[in-house]
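Two folds, back to back.
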Amino acid sequence: MIGLKGTLNVIDNSGALLVECVNVLKQKVNNGWGSVGDEIVCVVKRARPISGQASASAPKVRQGDVRRAVIVRTRKPVRRPDGRLIRFDDNAAVLLNNKREMLGTRIGGVVSADLRMKGWGKIVSLAPKVV
């Protein structure tokens, strides 16, 4: 359950390290709380420093940028259809561009299998482990 001012780790290689949620998109049924697979608007709170020369691996975001992201892990337990509860150690997100495509090219961490059911198969396919 991610709401206003909630902080999330960024697990892709876009250059952001920590983001803060400012809005949960299209969630009328859950009163502004976001869960795994929901899209949010966030502000980059901490980013990797930008080096002098521009290269292919240069960070794509800066501190203070407003971006969209999709939640991939939450501390709040999520109930699966078979009755199991899945809970992660932290809240995490993957940054998106305005076309709902991933900003980074790699994912460095575990993601929830619920993403596949919510239409984020690209994120699931790039993740090293799916739980």
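---
second:
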Amino acid sequence: MDWKTFQALLSGVNKYSTAFGRIWLSVVFVFRVMVYVVAAERVWGDDQKDFDCNTKQPGCANVCYDHFFPISHIRLWALQLIFITCPSFMVVMHVAYRDDRERKYRAKFGDDKKLYTNTGKKHGGLWWTYLISLFVKTGIEIAFLYILHHIYDSFYLPRLVKCEVSPCPNIVDCYVGHPTEKKVFTYFMVGASALCIILNICEIIYLVFKRVARIAKKYKRHNRNKHFQHDDYTNDNFNNYNMIVPKGKMADKPPSFKNVGKSPPRLEVLGTDPMIRASAPNLSYQCS
């Protein structure tokens, strides 16, 4: 495996990651890839030759090794590292797709026009792509831990195994090479994998909480603007013709729209002024 190419590809993911994503990437490189390349490959380098059985029966040692170690730790961890980093390339591919759309949009409408304010900003579809990649990485980590736990019985590596698989003539004692050293590396890699799962869960919670906070802030700002518009409406004298005004101020106020077209009562016109009453004709008598 070309780990330099592998590192170069993942370095592009780092600039689109959150703080938790950068910590996860550091843990993967320092505590998993470096340990794998520097130490673990040498410990499991020629594991089958170090698997020694107390019989010379042809094929017995090979069959017993395949029975107790159906897949080597080192190859299983290599597959795990490849699979957990593949979802991160989904984010890189999505950003590349955005960059291509942005380039075509500017070529069509001019360089001063923008389709995205920032193609690497986690909004819209890119946010969902990033979140799905976190769920996929977490699921892959858990799946490989379960496989390792199921195959090797709680990550335990014994010093001696008893094999009675054909073509072994009877119960054969087989000895595992470097059992303590392999056990230490196994626990270390399992712990690093568990740490990566915790970081992925923290990043999922962080992204969801940040998204909910942004939506709540936007909703609150929308309600506040709506309230300000309502206040401006209630302070408008033209629209508030139903407001109760004291009688002392009625003389200073223009007539209400409700009273437009209504003639005042006759008694209000005549009032109690004697000159007006005296000048009014008496219509109470009928001509005979």
